[in-house]
Specification:
The protein has eleven helices and 26 strands. By secondary structure, it is of the alpha+beta class. α8 packs across α11.
Amino acid sequence: MPNNPPIRFKKPNGTDYPDWQVKRLGELGTITSNGVDKKIIPTETKVQLLNFMDIYSNNRLKIDQLNHEVTASDKKIRDCNILKGDLFFTPSSEYRDDIAISAVALEDMPLCVYSYHIVRLRFKEKIDNTFKAYFCHTQTFRDNASKYANGSGQRYFISMRDFNNLSVNIPHPDEQKRIAEFLSNLDDMITAYAQKTETLRQQKKYYMQNLFPTTGKTTPKIRFKKQDGTDYPDWQVKRLGSICEMFRGGSPRPISSFLTKENGVNWLKIGDVPVDGKYVNYTAEKIKNAGVSKSRIVEKGDFILSNSMSFGRPYIMNIRACIHDGWLALSKYDKYFNQDFLYYTITTNNVLTQFTSMASGSSVKNLNKDLVSNVAVNTPHLDEQKRIAEFLSNMDDMITAHAQKTENLRQQKKYYLQNMFI
């Protein structure tokens, strides 16, 4: 029976390429270990070290990605050198299914050596260099490698003998090139969107530092103007407790007796909030009506702050819910604050620094109503607040869109790795 993947390219004339061939890694070339240690010896030559994390974080390697300087003897520099087309693997891992991650050298790397934590496959059989970046990243290969992994549960490893016996599926050279070009283009798009996402995050960080006053200041470095070109009024410093209502959550005891997944009021837990999100849209559980009086209700538009552990992290409620005493709620702020502006204000370094300095408790820092009420916030005119909030919200929308596009492309790549390989 033919040994071929579900998705295949055709030859230019529309016919099929030859069937794929099963090979052992040891048949493709020579696998070596015994790389260079992380050390500095004055009598040896300085070199750049290709280490475990370089392999783990990038499947396509170039010399400018290496930034760990060590020294090596002349013999080690010869024996552990890096040439274009060399394929490197991680032979150990804390997890069985995370072993044998691979990356290919896309260029010769003079005065570079590989670490003793990784192994090198130097090919004797001609394989497309870019194809090498992908053919060992398939689920089939990952499953096969995990079967060879030995260990006690704290660290798993694959022996050199087993590395040589790991099987891979190899197509015709022309089909290799087609697959490599397709996946390489996909990787380039992923990298471009990821870099754009990070650039936008750095831009937002800059504006957060300059659209709000720094600690001890009452005027930011960057300000919007009115429509007629004149300045908005000066910012005012107010205590948070004087411009909104604040209360701590509560819960009936034992809470397990009052929780349900059916009729009741939404019950907000730490696990319900999105890690990097802004809004609370969902709760996994509800609290029975009999327990509502022992808790506190937050309405849509109210703010909640985590008052322990990652204290001070704000979220805006998009639903009505009950909160336990791990949350602090802010409401009725709209006379003084635009909602989005208040969100960004609470996330400034100025406010977070005050949270940190005011947090009580020894091992676990904790915020309470009295402390948060005393936090000083810089308050501009509502029209200026709206301009700042709209600007930063638009930046957040762009960051989210690019991050989502990056993730969508990663999922597409995962699909093609599962279906363009055996």
